[in-house]
Amino acid sequence: MRILYLTPYWPHRVTSASEVRALNVVRALRERGEVEIVVVGGEGAEEEWMAVAEKEFRVACSFPIATYAPRRFYEKLAETLDPRRHYPDCYGVDQKALQRIQKIAQEFDVVWFCKLRTADNFPAWAWPRSVVDIDDLPTMYERSVFRMEVGIRKRLASARRLLHLFHRERLISERFSVLVVCSEADKRYLQKRKIRTPLHVVPNGYTPPAELPVRRPVQPPRIGFIGIFDYAPNLDGISWFARECWPRVKKEIPDARLRLVGRRSDSSLKPPGVDIDGLGWVADAAAEISTWSAMIVPIQRGAGTRGKIAHGLSLKCPIVSTTLGAHGYEFTNSYDGFLADSPADFANACIRTIRNPEEAAAMADRAWLRFLENWTWDAIKPRIWDAVDDCLRFSECRAEQRVNRPVLTR
To answer: Are residues 359 and 395 located together in one domain of the fold?
Structure first.
């Protein structure tokens, strides 16, 4: 079997949860056949890739992306009313790149898109023999943005985008052979929308440590957050926590510290405060996380599932999350994670993990067992293979229908 994998990420980079997912999906695909990678965009990491001596994967080619944003009012109106309009994210590749990728794709049995926006970067509508890993459902993301927006102009702009995405999503069965989402909740959402395309759930996961994880919470106590800070939902979430929740924690536990890990967490994006430590990218994140009393996931907007939760569970770290932050993990509050949406409740959950370490550890142990069953990449791989098999069956069925279609004569 030959599989063409189109992704916005260079395969050696794992600085975000999305990159971790992309890497582990392509590793699973390689166990089913020969895989070639096409990088679309790639954030200028080609030189880094070329410097890697031992390359795990073959990158066939890469394409830069450019901006294709509607500027005039009538163009924006046309974009809203036409769900099949190209470049819904306002950027993508040109016609020459499309022609090249369509020619390459003919040589492969399956075309797998990492993220829906990767397919949307091409000025084409339908892709035969294709799987799209949607990851974040655009309509769910925009709904969370709409709820958060302040001001009539911003809310109207968000409503316009949501209307366009809603109609575009309804037609997704025309475009791909198989759809992949991150959670059963996302699958149920698309089923309610009567999407006819086969749906598969491939959760976000994490590789468990080689040895049983051992936590070593330190004094003064630490609350931690991990995530890239140039991703708006992460930055908004940690800013909300630092502004609304952290002062409440400090009032009860004055010596507590907030530890921030991830790309640009040590930049000017870091919330101010002498008791807030921005560590940037950390080579051994597991060692840092083992010292935390809890990992916080204060996400206020977004879609899909948070890979940082699977990361925390893999290390037996207690989780304190908003309901949206824990979307897709089906947590029971206080059993396998603390769920809180108001500043007071979120702060009290953090305080509780610090003051009741035995309770927090027992909660993390229960979540660890669920992690081993559902969210290791070894447990997830068969789901990826099932999506590929379904794509092949779907494509063969379509080909058979074309061959057996009756010929109408005058």
So the answer is: no
Q: How far apart are CA 118 and CA 38, in angstroms?
A: 10
3-state secondary structure of 90: coil
The per-residue pLDDT for 70 is 65
Residue 322 three-state SS: coil
Note the pLDDT tens digit of each residue in 78-97. Answer: 777 889 989 888 889 999 99
- Are the C-beta atoms of 142 and 162 separated by less than 8 Å? yes
Three-point CA angle 184, 301, 117, nearest 5° = 70
The string over 387-404, giving b where at least 16 C-beta atoms fall within 10 Å of a residue's C-beta and e elsewhere, is bbebbeebbeeeeeeeee
Cβ burial of 27 (10 Å; 0-12, 13-18, 19+) is middle
Q: What is the pLDDT of residue 409?
A: 38
In this structure, is residue 79 part of a structural domain? Answer: no
User: Would you call 94 exposed, middle or buried from its count of C-beta atoms within 10 A (0-12, 13-18, 19+)?
Assistant: middle
What string of DSSP letters covers 386-402? HHHHHHHHHHHHHHHHH
Q: Residue 211: inside a domain, yes or no?
A: no
The reply to whether 255 and 234 lie within a common domain is yes
Query: Residues 387, 200: contact at Cβ < 8 Å?
Result: yes
Contact 164, 79 (CB under 8 A): yes
Same domain, 319 and 267: yes
Domain extent at residue 27: 2-73+84-133+171-205+378-404
Q: What are 298-310's pLDDT values in tens digits?
A: 999 999 999 999 9
- Taking the model in full, what pTM does it have? 0.91
Residue 141 lies in a domain: no
Q: How far apart are CA 293 and CA 218, in angstroms?
A: 8
- 240-253 tens-digit pLDDT: 999 999 999 999 99
- Interatomic CA distance for residues 336 and 159, integer angstroms: 36
In-domain check, residue 43: yes
Are residues 270 and 315 located together in one domain of the fold? yes
